[in-house]
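dude i think i finally got it to work??
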Amino acid sequence: MSSSRGGGKNRAFWPLIGFILALSLGVLSWALGPIVIDWMDASNIVRGFPSPEVPRTTWNWIATGVMFVILLMFSSLVVALFRPKQAMDVREKDLAKEREQLRRNIKAKKELQRRINKQMKDR
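look at this
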């Protein structure tokens, strides 16, 4: 059964696919977190990083969390860029016709009111 908004039959699996994507990004972040800490320590990008007062495990968790958020935002951007566009129910032609009809109705009401006012004056 195909949906009118696009997506087809496998639209029901999108939440599951998103969950699997988030899990895989979490595993990837968990693997990259310590590597990022080692790289930042070796490259001296920030002086005194990582701080010796904070345990190495804490820095690993922080790096993992930051990596997860960055990867999740990047993947959300990619998904948003490539998602199918939804068909719009309203077309510009239809809007123009509706506006013109509205103008005609307003004009007809004014004309009717003018006739009524004229008839009232003539009595």
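The two ends are 67 Å apart (CA to CA).
im so relieved honestly
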